[in-house]
Design a protein that fits this description.
By secondary structure, the chain is mainly alpha-helical. It is 59% helix and 4% strand. The termini are far apart.
């Protein structure tokens, strides 16, 4: 403990949204929560929208507020002055002519000010009504921001600042399609903003979390619109987990599991499903056939539910009966409520991300198995004719990182700091370097790769663009990624041989398949292998060399191609005999003269 001077104040701030301080700290300090609220942010965003779309309206509102404040202040001054004169006058009040004059002036001014305040109130109502037209945009923005912020509870690396979101909000208003009709303009802004935020957020999420974000986005929008009720949302999230099997109606058949029955009891509390328990008891055979089918969500639901329920209510029924089939039905719901583009996911575009970035905006790649972006970054730098050098962080590497940053900040270039989770102590210094350096070359960019770490700098995450480089889920998305990144138009035109393009597609299909099988665990591969973009690139390079050296009369040596794919390019990583056998079978079936 130390003695402090009178008037000494200590202010401490934190970026953590809900810090867990000890009771001693709470007892000795005044903790003030400056976190923005849903309503507060909505009003703030509404002001931004009006400033852009109806600037004269916002100017009029601000002038009106100033006038009202000035008039109220004037009234208060007059009242104070009159009160002072009344208390300080000696003798008869009737004989004091100056006091009578003050009374007359006060009365006249009070009438004038009252009239102005009444007029201002009427004008304020008209301005508020005109502003409220754009409330839809502000509400949507508020929903999107709070959903992004809530994702930090899923993973500590998913940190986004309000400043980043406001930039996104502002650019969405500028880029969305203009229209003289207010309702259409509002629709254009909302649609463009929602998809832009969706792409921005999904780019920085791991594949396992992307669909969670998309589903929550659809549900929150529908909750706001009133198309989904809160108790329906609760049923989807919780099911019958809060119920006791002994306290509910006994289940009629043994083949229905306890948890399924509790889910159905909870579901029966909703109006559309009030008779579902009785219907199951009366129509056991039909419900059992539906329940035991491979894809119940694709089959006709018994007792006319297929015709009476919309996609979301069907999702509730599938969730209660078959939790393992929720994802396919949820994708249908997202595609129907938001649009097909939301259900398909987002393909990483490194070039677009670089164009979006600024000199003081680092780009952080969240690493996972087989997702190192170094090749893509170096390839892009080469195409843009920019120098790119990397430093792998670890003990004693800070010196090299500092030197590289100083050089490229002055001369221009891309600095790639790899595995920054091994150099956490350097991150605060790195942040200060980026924010405090006055002169920086326009071509300077900072790329960072890191694994998830709870002690990674929140401040650095909040000023950066985050992205993941995992293989996307689904064959279609995987192929789109291969043809968007590795197999460019230049690669397609490398050779005019008839076998070139079909083989490129076959290699891309093989690459997507071997990556997609990983999500099935031991059913996909006995041992998980780290297949990545380098395998695809090296296989394409091998086939290009093979075609260049090929004897036209003999044609392609498919046995060589199959051996290189099954035993070397992809097979070189495979250690299990059965996995090797599967890979060789893929090569045998997909690569041959029939192409």
């Amino acid at each position: 403990e130390v003695d402090v001077m009178k008037g000494y104040m200590l202010y401490v701030t934190t970026k953590i949204p809900n810090p867990a301080y000890t009771s001693e700290i709470f007892a000795r300090t005044s903790v003030i929560d400056f976190t923005v609220t849903m309503k507060g942010l909505g009003d703030q965003l509404l002001g931004l929208v009006i400033m852009k779309e109806k600037s004269e309206l916002e100017s009029e509102r601000m002038k009106l507020m100033e006038d009202v404040t000035a008039n109220k202040k004037k009234m208060k001054e007059l009242e104070d002055n009159l009160l002072y004169r009344l208390t300080s006058t000696k003798g008869s009040l009737v004989d004091d002519e100056s006091l009578i004059q003050v009374l007359r002036t006060t009365k006249a001014t009070a009438e004038e000010v009252s009239y102005k305040l009444t007029t201002a109130a009427e004008t304020g109502i008209k301005i508020t009504a005109a502003r409220e037209e754009f409330r839809t945009v502000a509400t949507r923005g508020s929903i999107l921001y709070f959903l992004i912020v809530e994702m930090s509870m899923v993973n500590c690396m998913y940190q986004t600042s309000l400043g980043q979101f406001l930039d996104l909000f502002d650019s969405s208003m500028q880029r969305s399609a203009k229209s003289p009709i207010t309702a259409k303009r509002i629709g254009n802004i909302v649609e463009y903003l929602t998809f832009e935020v969706f792409k921005y957020a999904c780019r920085g999420l791991y594949e396992s979390d992307k669909f969670l974000f998309t589903l929550l986005l659809a549900l929150k929008i529908e909750l706001d619109n009133g198309r989904v009720k809160h108790h329906e949302f609760q049923t989807l999230i919780k099911g019958g987990a809060a119920l006791d099997l002994k306290a509910v109606q006994p289940k009629p058949f043994k083949w229905i599991t306890d948890m399924t029955w509790l889910n159905l009891v909870e579901l029966s509390k909703l109006m559309q499903f009030s008779e579902v328990l009785n219907q199951i008891s009366r129509n056991e055979k039909a419900w059992r056939i539906w329940f035991e089918s491979d894809a119940p969500e694709e089959e006709v639901i018994p007792d006319g539910y297929s015709n009476s329920l919309d996609t979301f209510r069907k999702l509730l029924l599938v969730r209660c009966w078959c939790p393992d089939r929720v994802l396919p039905q949820a994708r249908k719901y997202v595609a129907e409520s938001m649009g097909v583009k939301y259900a398909e996911g987002v393909i990483l575009d490194v070039k677009a991300m670089w164009e979006e970035s600024k000199v003081r905006t680092p780009m952080i790649c969240l690493l996972s198995m087989g997702s190192d972006p170094t090749n893509q970054i170096e390839s892009l730098a080469k195409r843009a004719n920019i120098e790119c050098r990397n430093v792998s962080m670890g003990q004693g590497q800070e010196v090299h990182a500092r030197r590289l940053l100083q050089q490229f900040m002055a001369q221009g270039g891309w600095a790639l700091l790899q595995n920054c989770h091994l150099g956490l102590g350097f991150l605060e210094e790195l942040l200060l370097t980026i924010t405090d350096t006055e002169q920086m070359h326009d071509q300077f960019r900072l790329w960072i790769t890191t694994e998830v770490h709870e002690k990674f700098s929140i401040n650095l995450l909040q000023i950066s663009i985050k992205f993941t480089n995992e293989p996307p889920q689904g064959i279609k998305a995987g192929l789109k990624r291969s043809f968007h990144g590795t197999i460019t138009q230049e690669v397609l035109e490398v050779s005019n041989m008839i076998q070139w393009k079909p083989t490129l597609y076959a290699v891309a299909f093989l690459h997507t398949t071997v990556q997609e099988r990983r999500k099935f665990g031991p059913l996909g591969w006995n041992i998980p292998y780290e297949f990545n973009q380098a395998d695809l690139s090296s296989t394409i390079q091998f086939f290009q060399n093979h075609l260049d050296d090929m004897d036209i009369k003999r044609g392609v040596s498919w046995s060589t191609v199959r051996y290189m794919i099954g035993e070397v390019q992809y097979g070189g990583k495979v250690t299990d005999d059965f996995d090797k056998r599967l890979l060789n079978t893929f090569a045998k079936v997909w690569f041959g003269e029939h192409m």
